[in-house]
Amino acid sequence: MSGPWRTGERYGLTPLFVAALFFIGAAPVFWRLVELRRASLPEAYENSDIYQRIAPALHHGFSALADGRLPLWTAEQWCGVPYLANAAHGVFQPLHAVFLVLPVERALAVHAFLCLTLMGFGFVLFARAVGVGYVAALLGATTYAFCGASAAAMSRPSMAAALVWLPFLLWAIREFGRSRSLS
What we know:
Number of strands: 2
Strand order of the largest sheet: 1-2
Structural class: mainly alpha
Largest sheet: 2 strands, antiparallel
Strand content: under 5%
Number of helices: 7
Order of helices and strands: HHEEHHHHH
Helix content: 55-70%
Shape: globular
Oligomer: single chain
């Protein structure tokens, strides 16, 4: 095969751009078809945690940051607990910056779109680093980004962020190992 789609070129600009566009378009479709389906309260129990614990905690922490205060403590949960020390809130997680500029309800959706897109694109990069073809990399990335575990993680922002960074970490390790073996 010739051009940017040939397998010998690890990171062709055109195929990576197409992969990025695919995930940018597929993330909202996945969110709409899987996450926003209408369900009765017993069927929606898995997402009840987002309304009872996660959204109020994110609102508390990121509204304090927006006001210029560090959210060291929260009195709203369990009669008072440390907020900043709890890794589940992910205050310093770079992907959680959307909670600073948008209301929590809207930021949760934007965060999910961002996570799904980056999960897919990161997996494509990792798959290309280990020598997988573009089509196989895109299929693997689609499976990784839109599987059941990813769908469950979208209602838990810290877990979703961890799934985002995994393929990028594996890609960086592979590229570092490649550069060390060449020198």
